[in-house]
Amino acid sequence: xxxxxxxxxxxxxxxxxVRYTEKxxxxxxxxxxxxxxxxxxxxxxxxxxxxxxxYPFGFFAVGQAQLARIHASSGTTGQPTVVGYTxxxxxxxxxxxARSIYAAGGRPGMKIHVAYGYGLFTGGLGxxxxxxxxxxxxxxxxxGQTKRQVQLIQDLQPDIIMVTPSYxxxxxxxxxxxxxxxxxxxxxxGIFGAEPWGEGMRGEIEQAFGIDxxxxxxxSEVMGPGVAQECVIDKGALTFWEDHFYPEIVDPESxxxxxxxxxxxxxxxxxxxxxMPVIRYRTGDLTRLxxxxxxxxxxxxxxxGRTDDMLIVRGANIFPSQIEEHILSCGIFAPHYLIEVTxxxxxxxxRVRVEARPGIAAADWPAAARELMxxxxxxxxxxxxxxxxxxxxxxxxxxxxRRVQDLRRATD
Length: 412
Known about the structure:
single chain; 11 helices; 412 residues; alpha/beta; 31% helix; globular; 4-stranded antiparallel beta sheet
C-alpha cells in the first residue's frame, strides 16, 4: 500500500506542481524511478524555506476552485506558510484525528472540550472535525478566557480535553484559585500537543486532574495534528499513521537515512494528499523510529528537540530573528541581546536582555522597554520581559553569536 501510494504521490507532485518538477529534474530523478520504498532517499528534500519562498500558493498541486480550506502557520519573518486542503484532504485529516482520539481512549458519544485555538492555526479545527468524525460531542471553546474554561468543564462535563499542555496548567491554576478540586471533574483523558512537554509535566497533569495525559503530533506543513498519536495503553512513544504519512529519520548534517532506533531528524512524505503533497519534508524535529507495539504501525519517540533555533513558548513558534527585528525597530537598542527562556513555576517565561545604544539616557530605557514588549506581543504573539543594560554588558562571542539561553530543561 505504501509503495503504491508513494508512487502515485510522486507522480502527482511532479506533474502538477512546477516546484517539484524543477526539484526532481535538478536531482536527476523521475517518479517512475521509485521501485522500492528504500529508493525514496534518492529524491530531494523539501524544506520550510521552499514553502516560504513559494508564498502563498506556489506548492499547491490543484487549482484554486478545488480548494475547500486554507490554513497558515507563522514564518520566521512574519510571513506565513500557507497550506491548502481539498475536501478529500479534509476527510482524510478528520479520519486520522478520529483514529488518534480513539487510540488515546476516546469513544463515540464522549464529549470533547477543545481548547486549542481556532482559525488559521490547525489545532482547533483539526481536533474539532476529528472528534465529530469519531462520533463525539464537541465543545468548541477555543483558547483563552480561562475562568470560563473552568466553568464549562464543570457545567458541561466533558470526558476529554484537547489543549496545549502549558495552557492546561493555566486551567489548573484557575481551578486552584477558585477552590475547586480538579480531580472532581468529569475529565478522563487529556490529548496535548502543539509544543514539547516532558514526563514531569505529564505526571503533574495526571496527578492533579486524575486523568490520562497523552501526546498528539502534527505540523501544518504536512497537515496539522493527527500525524502521530500516543496510545493510552502504551505511553512513551507515538504511533505514526504510516498509511497516510511515510516517515524517515535522517542525519541532520549529511541527510543520510538512519535505521530504526537511531536518533535524527524526522522527514515526512505525504502519501494521500491532493492539494499540497509534500515530498521528504524536513521537519526539524529530533526523534527516532521504533518498532510497533499496540498498533501495527511504527512509533516515533516523543520529540526531544529541534535542529534549528526555533523556540516553542506556550505553544507559539518563535525565532530569535523575530525578536531582533523589533529590538532594532525601536531605534534605542543595540543589536546585542540575549533571549532567556525559563520555567520558574509551571509555565514558560521569556526575558530579553538588551543593550541600550551609546548616548541614550537611562531615563528613556523604561519607555523603550515597554514599547518593545508591546510590539513583540502584538506581532509575535508572546509576552516577554525586557531588561535594558548599559552598552557592552551583553556577552560577545568570537564566533557565532549566542542569542538564546534555554534553561527549561534544567527545571524539568
